[in-house]
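Thread: Newbie trying to understand structure tokens

Hi all, I'm a second-year student working on a class project, and my supervisor (Dr. K.) asked me to get a predicted structure for one chain before our next meeting. I've only ever worked with sequences, so writing a 3D structure as a token string is new to me. If someone could post the tokens and maybe explain what I'm looking at, I'd be very grateful. Here's the chain:
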Amino acid sequence: MFMTLRFEALLWLLVGITAVWVVSMKARDASLVDLCWGPLFAAQGVFHLLLADSPGLRGTLAVAITVLWAARLSLHLAMRNLGAGEDRRYAEMRRAGGSGWGWRSLVTVFWFQALLSWLIAWPLAIAATRPGSPGWLGWLGAVLAVTGLALEAVADAQLRRFKAREAARPDASAPRGVMDLGLWRYSRHPNYFGDAVFWWGLWMLALDAGAALVSVAAPLGMTFLLIKISGIPLLEGHLESTRPGYAAYARRTSEFVPWFPRDH
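---
Reply by user tm_fold:
Sure, no problem. This is what the structure looks like when written as tokens:
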């Protein structure tokens, strides 16, 4: 039953993301896929919870936290991206891909993200489909997930206010500053750290539901993506080339896990 639901969820994800791809083709904006990242997980959680044989409090809690996380992320991305044109990463892919980029983006961007979300949502599917109430491990996981969500929200809000102040400067030609206040004083990427904490908390809820230890591949994979693939590396290179003070900030500030700044 569980694996049947999992494959059904994947099929629906592919159908839904393909519809978004059609819109992106008309808008010439592949970055619309980013707005779907949170909803891809929320939809899976709700799907599994509704079709579970006997959903319990643990599953309801896991899905509720995931829906809250997805709603916050989607709102944040919508406020940041809508009306700003195609994200530079996808614009570069479009230029490099030439005339065939549109069709290739269906597989390499849209279907890929749907498949990736399906794999990472493994712990969520386990927690949502197995009955019972949380034990101490489940409650600890829920607290950890909410803490990660809060860290993300606070870090993004702080960065949004900083960017608004930067945009309002009277001398727009002056070098742009570096955000090193609030949570950003202790980590160069506190929002990514919060995201990782969220996924580890969700995994603990699944472990409380009886998930096999091998399911740790999901939060490990997500953390690896954030640190080594699609998160920090892409952003750091851009910031180093566009923010003159970023190199000095990087030398004194922890890359990922929040810690006290170094003196030099």
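A couple of things are worth pointing out once you decode it. DSSP finds eleven helices and no strands in the chain. The two ends are 57 Å apart (CA to CA). Feel free to ask follow-ups in this thread.
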